[in-house]
């Protein structure tokens, strides 16, 4: 059963996503595809229980060589984001980047990969370091690589 705190967190995440989508729609895609130095992406997953297509707006603090790195922080909540649980169950995902949707395979970074990426992630957005400090959960880093 969800606690009030969990409901508030989930509502806040949903509202933030809605506002991001509204910015993209109202600006006809001219605004909202970057936040600071970070690329934003729309991640499309398959619901692990429903089997329905789900999507969420996220930042990719590291993106290079066709791969995009996502951070399953949920603002430092003690629970994994729903999108992360979905892609663990079904790693074939799509990313929409500036209105172009492409197929990717998502995976949780190994400990060594996370150790290499984490300083770059926090350099792009120091809030990720603060989120890790708020929770005992090891925040997963997700690597999305093109599916061929």
Q: What is the alpha-carbon Rg in Å?
A: 15 Å
Q: Low-confidence spans: pLDDT under 50, at least 5 residues?
A: none
How many beta strands in the DSSP annotation?
A: 8
The total of helices stands at 4
Question: How much helicity do the residues have?
Answer: 25-40%
Please give the alpha-carbon distance between the first and last residues. 40 Å
Tell me, briefly, the overall form.
Answer: globular
- Kindly report the average pLDDT value: 90
Largest sheet features: 8 strands, antiparallel
Global structural class:
alpha+beta
How much beta, percentage-wise? 25-35%
Note the run of SSEs as H and E.
HEEEEEHEEHHE
Overview of this protein structure:
- It is built from four helices and eight strands, in the order αβββββαββααβ.
- The protein has helices spanning 4-26, 82-89, 111-124, 127-134, and strands at 34-35, 38-46, 53-60, 62-64, 67-71, 92-97, 100-108, 141-146.
- Strands 1, 2, 3, 4, 5, 6, 7 and 8 form an eight-stranded antiparallel β-sheet that branches.
- A hairpin with a 2-residue loop joins strand 6 and strand 7.
- The chain is globular and about 40 Å long.
- The model has no long low-confidence stretch (mean pLDDT 90).
Name the descriptors.
148 residues; 4 helices; 8-stranded antiparallel β-sheet; globular; alpha+beta
Short recap of the structure:
This protein has 148 residues and is an alpha+beta fold. The protein is built from 4 helices and 8 strands, in the order αβββββαββααβ. Strands 1, 2, 3, 4, 5, 6, 7 and 8 form an 8-stranded antiparallel beta sheet that branches.
């Amino acid at each position: 059963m969800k606690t009030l705190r969990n409901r508030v967190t989930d509502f806040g995440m949903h509202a933030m996503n809605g506002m991001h989508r509204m910015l993209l729609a109202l600006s006809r895609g001219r605004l909202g595809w970057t936040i600071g130095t970070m690329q934003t992406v729309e991640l499309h997953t398959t619901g692990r229980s429903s089997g329905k297509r789900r999507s969420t707006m996220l930042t990719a603090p590291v993106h290079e060589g066709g791969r995009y790195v996502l951070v399953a922080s949920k603002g430092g909540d003690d629970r994994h984001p729903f999108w992360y649980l979905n892609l663990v169950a079904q790693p074939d995902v799509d990313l929409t980047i500036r209105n172009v949707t492409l197929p990717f395979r998502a995976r949780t970074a190994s400990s060594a990969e996370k150790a290499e990426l984490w300083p770059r992630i926090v350099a792009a957005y120091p809030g990720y370091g603060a989120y890790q400090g708020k929770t005992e959960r090891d925040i997963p880093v997700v690597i999305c690589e093109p599916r061929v």
